[in-house]
Write a structure and sequence with these properties.
20 strands; Rossmann fold; binds adenosine-5'-triphosphate; OB fold (Dihydrolipoamide Acetyltransferase, E2P); single chain; alpha+beta; five-stranded antiparallel sheet; six-stranded mixed sheet
């Protein structure tokens, strides 16, 4: 993957309105040469509209789009040399696979020998040679996907845009096709921009993920960054299953030391004091704890001094194979979700002590929704 500096596409202050509805709001983004970039977000957040603007199928209401530094905002799709793969593949069913692959080159008036060369070369790479003579209507779904991709690759686009291409697949096949896509990206080294509402898909495929919500970008980062350091409360609750526990806490100073206080625990935060005190929401903050960072603590065992321990009661047990999700209720009635190894049985009503380390928690400002530290 390319590093920052090798920018292929730049979106600058892009806004798109449809009859007064703002679908995309003041979006700024760089797409790097050779990367697999995933757009992730709930339905209606503006992913497809952004992709369509990159392709030239929609014109931004405001803002500019640059391709390798050149302003292309007004360029028609065919001038951009950008491949677009739709959800339904839109193959020509009455044509053979060969004709489907060659079609985009015929309309671009590419010489016959060059068409033959490109079609054969991509068909070989995607193992489509045995089906070149078949009608597209006779193909199975996974072959159709390869034909749809091959049809774009023969045009030799600078970037491939894919809009939920795996939506029509049943779960097992979907994972298989996902792995194929990733392999092709390595093989062809092309920049891919991929839209999905499935976080698992974005986390497995993306070199970087753009997380969108209500027409805005919430965060752009590697899968690790958006998981470990969510920039906003939205990202914190959207990424990760089960989602992060978000607990209201109050910031207090006692005998010169800084604490976050909830009805169930108190954690010292002297090390984060400077950042916390910049928040305009004080004293109210939100503490984020991932379910996998909550652990069961044996009260008979000694514990490190910084471990925060909370008495709780098992509310619900959800087995997940080698792990299980436990919903536990604290004495104050707060419900927390935790993920623990299935090494023993748990029953609803059972009393436990749960624990976490303060340095593994994240803090958010409830007014701005932004992550603090
Ligand atoms: P989905 O995953 O459901 O496709 P999305 O994140 O891709 O959602 P968009 O399709 O980009 O979202 O839509 C963003 C907003 O813009 C939605 O409110 C949608 O109704 C609106 N919208 C999109 N296209 C049009 C259009 N042609 N005319 C009017 N409104 C539109």
């Amino acid at each position: 993957m390319a590093r920052e500096g090798q920018i292929l596409i730049r979106l600058e202050n892009i806004t798109k309105e449809f009859n007064g509805t703002i679908a995309v709001h003041n979006l700024n983004l760089e797409i790097w040469e050779g990367e697999f970039l995933c757009f992730l977000g709930p339905s209606g957040c503006g992913k497809t509209t952004t992709l369509r603007m990159i392709a030239g199928l929609e014109r931004p209401t405001r803002g500019e789009i640059y391709l390798r530094g050149q302003r292309i905002t007004d360029w028609p799709p065919q001038r951009r040399n950008i491949g677009f793969m739709f959800q339904n593949y839109a193959l020509f069913n009455h044509m053979s696979v060969y004709e489907n692959l060659a079609f985009g080159l015929w309309v671009r008036r590419v010489p016959r020998e060059e068409i033959e060369r490109r079609v054969r070369s991509v068909a070989q790479a995607l193992e489509l040679e045995p089906v070149l003579h078949l009608r597209a209507s006779r193909l199975d779904l996974s072959t159709m996907q390869r034909v749809a991709l091959a049809r774009i690759l023969v045009i030799e686009p600078q970037v491939l845009l894919l809009d939920e291409p795996l939506n029509n697949f049943r779960p097992g096949l979907r994972e298989l096709m996902r792995a194929e896509l990733k392999r092709w990206q390595y093989q062809f080294g092309r920049t891919m921009v991929y839209v999905t509402h499935d976080q698992e898909e974005a986390m497995t495929l993306g070199d970087r993920i753009v997380i969108m919500n209500a027409g805005h970008i919430e965060q752009v980062g590697t899968p690790d960054e958006v998981y470990q350091r969510p920039a906003t409360l939205f990202v914190a609750s959207f990424i990760g299953r089960p989602s992060m526990n978000l607990l209201p806490v109050e910031y207090r100073i006692s005998e010169g030391r800084a604490f976050l206080v909830s009805p169930d625990f108190e954690i010292p935060v002297d090390d984060r004091r400077e950042i916390i005190e910049k928040s305009h929401s004080l004293p109210n903050l939100i503490l984020g704890v991932r379910p996998e960072q909550l652990r069961i603590h044996d009260p008979q065992e000694s514990s490190p001094p910084d471990l925060i321990r909370i008495p709780a009661q098992v509310d619900l047990v959800r087995p997940q194979g080698r792990k299980l999700i436990l919903d536990v209720k604290t004495r104050s009635g707060t419900l927390l979700q935790m993920v623990v190894p299935s090494i023993r049985r748990f029953v609803a009503g059972e009393q436990l002590e749960i624990a976490f380390y303060p340095h593994q928690t994240l803090l958010f400002d409830p007014q701005t929704g932004k992550g603090l530290c």
